[in-house]
Amino acid sequence: MNNEALNRLRWRRSICSSVGLLRLKAHPIQMSACDKVLLAFDFDHTIIEVNSDYHVRKLAPGGVIPHEIVALHSDEGWTKCMAEIFRYLHENSVKPKDILDCMSEVEFTSGMVELFENLNMEKVDIIIISDANSVFIDHILETNGRKNLFHSVFTNPAFFDENGRLSLEGYHVQDHCTLSTKNLCKGQILEDFITARRLDGIKYSLVGYIGDGMNDFCPGLKLSEVDLFFPRQGFSLVKYIQKMETEQGLKVRAELCLWNTGLDILEKIKEKRPDVIKS
Ligand SMILES: Cc1ncc(COP(=O)(O)O)c(C=O)c1O
Ligand SMILES: [Mg+2]
What we know:
279 residues; alpha/beta; two-stranded antiparallel ribbon; 8 strands; globular; binds pyridoxal-5'-phosphate; binds magnesium ion; Pyridoxal phosphate phosphatase PHOSPHO2
């Protein structure tokens, strides 16, 4: 986080603390916490229309990744597969600039910019939880001029090594959640974030989680009845929610709000919390 962003955060925190103190007089029970809305976004097929990990494959010779590398992709995770893809690209003379230029082509999903521009960021925190990687996400946010909007980005750390190869690690190692990949449990990240913010004096009166894939089911389960779960229309998460309920009795408690573009999300937030929309 740069100095400007840190200062802005501190400034927001100080505003929140004063609001908390004012509340103390009228409503002693709510005293220490500053109420905000949290919107947690998946990245691939959510903030952006494509899957960045698939988009980069076009840089391989003939746009084809060898079968033995593709075969490393599993439901338990794809960081090994992606690390091998990056090794393969490097062996085939793909340079860091080629990868970054390829990511510069990636556009935000329709209506996402309008959604972000209409949220009152004094009242809303937005975060990203993604099983892509930090280099792709950073670059795409930067080229779209939206990097500073996000309070935090949780994803697999990546960097270009001294030879120019993109190197990738898992975000964490976990084996408690069988719904998630081994390297990244979005549900745990969401819960840890909310707990950390609570300790900072920020309480979320509404949490919205926006995603498309099966790896977004675990954070959806963590939401409560007052929250909003946004599975993307026509993507795998919609059917997975039904399947997990009928086959495993795992029921999402939050209100389900299907979405197709960012404008659908904006409409729903407007309806539930007009106070966090810019006037
Ligand atoms: C290779 C690969 N990368 C990324 C993702 C998902 O990333 P995100 O969590 O940003 O949707 C998937 C989902 O299946 C995938 O297969
Ligand atoms: Mg996704």
